[in-house]
Design goal:
With 279 residues, this protein is of the alpha/beta class. It has ten helices and eleven strands. It binds ligand LMY7XDAE.
Length: 279
């Protein structure tokens, strides 16, 4: 029987810490949502509610699906130069006519709560992070809160996205794990996943990992969250893997809530750095 790594409880704890901070400082997060992707709308609403719970000001800019790039650039420019705005988040995915890279690059690095700007990503990958991206940072917090040792452990990350896989690998390495990154072109994936002491699966492939893919006693972190037949489904077959893992995240209720709590934490951190507050 594995320990269930309960993200909701840890997220509440993190929110309580942030609420204590927000009581003494005014902090503002602006989220831009373009289009009518239902899942994105839910995530943005959840971010707004979480910000309100901790006493942070949250402003959502909802734009129609056919919004032109120039309009979004102009909005980002206004938010960049608004002294009251501490964090700017452009919710992904964007409608296909928009160039995500160009728009993300236009967010001021000191307000880039997602760590997508090359300056912030570069600093993080050089081991000099301002902040770490929300999902990897939440996962580290989850491991830390459960006193799961990372140093010298073999961590295998499945997936190499800019949002999770790449920064997750960098953060685990920063935390002194030995890291292997696998992706969709990896041959004989199981040969790698079976070596993992800590397995992070962020492949966006529901049910990819089963009991034969893990080493008994492994810590298994499931970042997957796709709707399959109306049910939120992870990349790991939980019922199969749970009996042989030592610890495992559920979907829902694992990594997701911590992604949002980490976003608030990143906003506080960037506000502190930009405004010169002690943190
Ligand atoms: N600009 C960004 N866009 C996106 C990010 C991101 O970090 N920055 N991540 C994902 C989506 N995401 C946050 O935006 C996110 C996904 C899932 C959850 C979450 O709490 N999931 C719950 C289940 C919620 C449900 O019932 O649907 C859970 O796992 O328990 C939070 C945030 C893509 N875009």
């Amino acid at each position: 029987m594995a320990i269930i790594l309960d993200g909701k409880t840890i997220a509440k704890k993190l929110e309580a810490e942030l609420a204590a901070y927000s009581r003494i400082r005014e902090i503002r997060l602006d989220v831009i949502l373009v289009g009518d992707n239902l899942a994105s709308a839910t995530y943005v609403r959840n971010k707004h509610r979480a910000a309100e719970r901790v006493g942070m000001q949250s402003v959502i800019h909802t734009l129609p699906v056919h919004t032109k790039s120039e309009e979004i650039e102009q909005l980002i420019e206004e938010l960049n130069s608004n002294e009251e705005v501490d964090g700017i988040l452009l919710q992904l995915p964007l409608p296909e006519q928009l160039n995500s890279e160009k728009l993300l690059d236009s967010i001021h690095p000191m307000k880039d709560v997602d760590v997508f700007h090359p300056e912030n990503a570069g600093l993080a990958y050089l081991g000099r992070p301002r902040i770490w991206p929300c999902t990897p940072s939440g996962i580290l917090r989850l491991l830390h809160e459960h006193e799961i040792d990372i140093v010298g452990k073999h961590a295998v990350v499945v997936g190499r996205s800019n949002i999770v896989g790449k920064p997750m690998a960098a953060l685990l390495q920063h935390a002194n794990a030995t890291v292997t990154v696998c992706h969709r072109m990896t041959k004989r994936l199981q040969d790698f996943t079976r070596q993992a002491d800590i397995l992070v699966v962020a492949a966006g492939s529901p049910g990819l990992i089963g009991k034969d893919d893990i080493k008994p006693g492994a810590v298994v972190i499931d970042v997957g969250s796709e709707f399959v037949n109306g049910k939120l489904t992870g990349d790991v077959r939980f019922a199969e893997v749970e009996p042989i893992a030592s610890a495992i995240t559920p979907v829902p209720g694992g990594v997701g809530p911590l992604t949002i709590a980490s976003l608030l934490s990143n906003t506080v951190r960037l506000a502190s750095l930009r405004r010169g507050w002690a943190n």
